[in-house]
Design brief:
Chain A is of the alpha/beta class. Chain A is built from 17 helices and eleven strands. Chain A is globular, with a radius of gyration of 21 Å. Chain B is an alpha+beta fold. In chain B, the strands form three sheets. Chain B has a seven-stranded mixed β-sheet with strand order 8-10-7-11-9-12-13, sandwiched between helices. Classes of the chains: A alpha/beta, B alpha+beta. Chains A and B meet through helix 1, helix 2, helix 3 and helix 17 of A and helix 8 and strand 13 of B.
């Protein structure tokens, strides 16, 4: 039995769903922050099991989705440069920039490599001293330690042909903005477990208190998610709004101090633009002065003129939890994973792609919800 | 048919020894090409048709319907855990014929080699292909060799055409499928795709995952003799998800699968979880899907399980009249989700 299987136990899921059904007395709207959670909810069909009163609003936690167009365009310009080996995680390949994407740049001669870890880019830099190796460092608190470690290591080796194009963002400031919007509907937050495994819980009590929302740190397996939802609903019912950890097997209260100190060594907080959400104060990291020679933006000062993305695309509203993917008119028509108009349709963690892959673009089984709920309650 | 790489033990015949690697001249049609043919390619596939050294092969005609298929193989790396492009180029084409209900007799093999390909590596690939063909009693009767300029290094692309005869009376086709039919799968999935991906990207997993490349002719054709099979399909690129979608596409039926019933080795499942890949969308090279009438499902499964390549055969679902054209999976939690046609290249997620 693998470590995961216990957290995918259907019998345990049924017990949790039954308990939820018993305690739900009114409509509640919960936001799962992380795209990985959205993906898992739809992948396993958990949304169909929940009592109808519980609405899941999908949060902005998809790293590919929130990377601004100007950064994508800069990445495309760098990737097209003849002396650059441009390294990226796989799901950036299809993300549309203003005029192209990395997949097309690669097909027309750009040296674009898919890597699994930023540290692999250092090996490329060592073996290609005649080339400039640029790593596309995007992501949340989860990937920031590995990016920091890579820059730190490059510095130790004094690798002069390595640099990183970063667009690293932090979750709590974005939640702060979302919750502060006057007409927002989110009543509880399922915080992203992996983000908290690095950063700990310290930034959340303030949010819980300020906006009177329960915050439950939640994992990614079906049982984790149902447990997180159950704890959030229990808090809502009893009028509490505190921070709880429903993912203790991975998350310590103070996170991972070693990873945090590595982030702190290499990066400093900065204002960042989020695609669809605008500039959010202190919501990201930039490379500190000490390591600035590894900052690709400094090394390749290219002027980027980004045009706006498709006027049909409403991914900004989807990222803010204001629009369900299926409520967008382009969804499943002009916009599909093969022809994405916005980044939320590209990454598996993007809400639009998750909806599309779960078949929400047509309703082949309209009665699934009631059917599944009764099946789960049997 | 899994020999360890023998690059070190292979002894280069004297006329080829001037070159340890493929050079452009090996495709030029002159002395170097002749040496390659005479001392490496023809000996590997040794048979009377090749020995005639004609422009083509004259083949005797058999009774039944002649079935032809072609496939190109571009896998990297060329040798991977559990196989190589050599076995793949034979098994893949044989399997396409088997899925048509045809027994393969002959193959043609066209090689496109990249300048710089080590000769010992080519020899290894050809010997593995020859072993696979011999084990299947199939003759490689014609071929071609071209050399292209160096681009990425160590390139070897193989196109094989397969010729076989189908003695089965009916036509295996989605047209024969009816609601209620059983969807059977011959074994555990996603091994080939993960084996190749992990070798190519240097990913190390605790237990080795090896490709399932295998010749499905015997198991498929014996099943065809025993039960009234509606159709076969081997879920290669795009995996089971793509194959089932192709079967259901534009048809008046849908397919419902039970997610829990689909066998996946634990190591493969863990690798897929880590990489953010759905095993249903990952390639196989030694598995097949059979659609049979519900009443014949048990007998078909018993047949499949009696063959080593079908030990883990299971029923994974049913053809239904609901959601025509679509494949739907029932999750272990009692929910349903669509199984979409995979987008294309497998792109591991960021986190």
């Amino acid at each position: 039995m693998s470590n995961w299987e216990g957290f995918r136990d259907p019998e345990h899921a049924r017990v949790l769903v039954r308990e939820l059904q018993q305690i739900v007395t009114q409509r509640w709207a919960l936001m799962e922050v992380c795209g990985g959670q959205t993906h898992a909810i739809l992948r396993h069909g958990l949304d169909q099991l929940l009592p109808e009163e519980i609405e899941l609003i999908h949060g902005p936690g998809c790293p590919v989705c929130v990377t601004p167009l100007s950064v994508i365009d800069r990445a495309l310009a760098l990737a097209a440069s003849p002396d650059v080996i441009f390294c990226t995680f796989g799901d950036m390949l299809r993300v549309p920039g203003s005029r192209s994407d990395l997949q097309r740049i690669k097909a027309t001669g750009g040296d674009v490599r898919i890597l699994y870890s930023p540290l692999d880019a250092l090996a490329l830099a060592r073996s290609h001293p005649e080339k400039q190796v640029v790593f596309f460092g995007i992501g949340f608190e989860t990937t920031a330690p590995a990016h920091a470690l890579t820059i730190h290591q490059a510095h130790r080796e004094n690798l002069s042909n390595f640099s990183m194009l970063t667009s690293l963002v932090r979750v709590p400031p974005a939640l702060d903005v979302l919750l502060a919007e006057p007409d927002q509907r989110v009543q509880a937050i399922l915080a992203a477990g992996h983000v908290c495994s690095v950063m700990g819980l310290q930034e959340y009590p303030l949010l819980a208190e300020r906006y009177r929302v329960p915050v439950v740190v939640t994992g990614f397996e079906p049982i984790d998610l149902l447990q997180g939802i159950l704890q959030a609903v229990k808090q809502l019912k009893s009028g509490k709004s505190i921070v709880e950890n429903a993912y203790a097997r991975a998350v310590a209260t103070n996170g991972n101090p070693v990873a945090r100190s590595m982030i702190d060594e290499v990066f400093e907080e900065t204002d960042r633009e989020w695609r669809g959400m605008g500039i959010i104060p202190r919501s990201g990291w930039r490379i500190r002065k000490k390591y600035q020679k590894y900052d690709a933006e400094m090394r390749f000062p290219i002027a980027i003129a980004s045009s706006s993305c498709s006027h049909l695309c409403r991914s900004g509203e989807v990222l803010r939890g204001r629009l369900k993917p299926t409520e967008c008119e382009a969804f499943g028509r002009e916009c599909t994973p093969r022809t994405p108009l916005g980044a939320t349709m590209v990454s598996d963690e993007g809400a639009c792609a998750a909806y599309y892959h779960a078949g929400k673009f047509q309703q082949p089984f309209p009665s699934a919800r009631t059917h599944a709920t009764s099946a789960a309650a049997e | 048919m899994q020999r360890p790489p023998q690059q070190n033990s292979w002894h280069c015949p004297v006329p080829l020894r001037d070159f340890s690697h493929i050079v452009l001249g090996h495709g030029g049609g002159g002395r170097l090409t002749a040496d390659l043919l005479e001392h490496l390619i023809r000996p590997a596939f040794d048979n009377p048709f090749l020995a005639r050294q004609a422009d083509g092969a004259e083949l005797p005609v058999q009774t039944g319907r002649l079935v032809v298929t072609a496939d190109s193989y571009v896998v990297r790396p060329l040798i991977f855990p559990g196989g190589s492009i050599g076995e793949l180029a034979v098994h893949g084409t044989l399997n396409d014929l088997a899925m048509m209900g045809a027994r393969a007799k002959y193959l043609t093999m066209a090689l496109i080699l990249e300048e710089g390909l080590p000769l010992a590596l080519l020899a290894e690939i050809l010997h593995r292909a020859a072993d696979a063909a011999r084990a299947a009693s199939v003759l490689v009767v014609a071929g071609d060799t071209k050399v292209i300029e160096r681009c990425h290094g160590e390139g070897c692309f193989i196109t094989t055409t397969g010729l076989g005869w189908c003695k089965h009376e009916g036509h295996l086709s989605p047209d024969a499928i009816a609601a209620g039919d059983a969807v059977l799968l011959s074994g555990t999935i996603a091994e080939h795709g993960i084996a190749v991906l992990s070798q190519r990207e240097g990913l190390q997993f605790e237990s080795a995952i090896i490709s399932d490349t295998a010749n499905l002719q015997e198991i498929a054709l014996s099943l065809l003799e025993a039960v009234p099979v509606r159709m076969f399909r081997d879920p290669t690129r795009g995996g089971v998800a793509a194959t089932l979608n192709e079967i259901a596409h534009s048809r008046r039926f849908g397919i419902e699968i039970i997610e829990q019933s689909i066998p996946v080795q634990p190591a493969v499942r863990s690798a897929c979880d880590l990489l953010g890949l759905d095993p249903l969308a990952v390639a196989n090279e030694g598995k097949f899907i059979a659609i049979v009438p519900d009443a014949a499902a048990d007998e078909a499964l018993a047949r499949m399980r009696s063959h080593p390549l079908g030990r883990n055969a299971v029923r994974i679902g049913t053809v239904v009249s609901d959601h025509p054209g679509h494949v739907v999976a029932r999750t272990p939690f009692g929910a349903k989700r669509m199984v979409p046609l995979p987008a294309g290249e497998l792109l591991p997620r960021i986190c």
